[in-house]
Amino acid sequence: MQILEVENLSLQYGEQIILDQVSFSTKERKIVGLLGSNSAEQSSIIKILAGMVFQETGNLSFKK
What we know:
By secondary structure, the protein is an alpha+beta fold. The protein has one domain (about 1-60): P-loop containing nucleotide triphosphate hydrolases (Rossmann fold), CATH 3.40.50.300. Helices cover about 20% and strands about 45% of the residues. It has a 3-stranded antiparallel sheet, covered by helices on one side. Strand 1 and strand 2 form a beta hairpin. The longest helix has 12 residues, at about 40-50. The chain starts with a strand and ends with a strand. The mean pLDDT is about 90.
């Protein structure tokens, strides 16, 4: 069962594109890691998932 689905997530600060159409999903009872070319990408995804920052485009689905 998918517990988290992220589809086409985008985030931009001024002219700087941080996330560009990022999509992924995680299954229940799985350990996952975030890898990327710089830490701004990973921390931005975590901030969006935590509700600290709002994405410009894309959908988040949390399932119980």
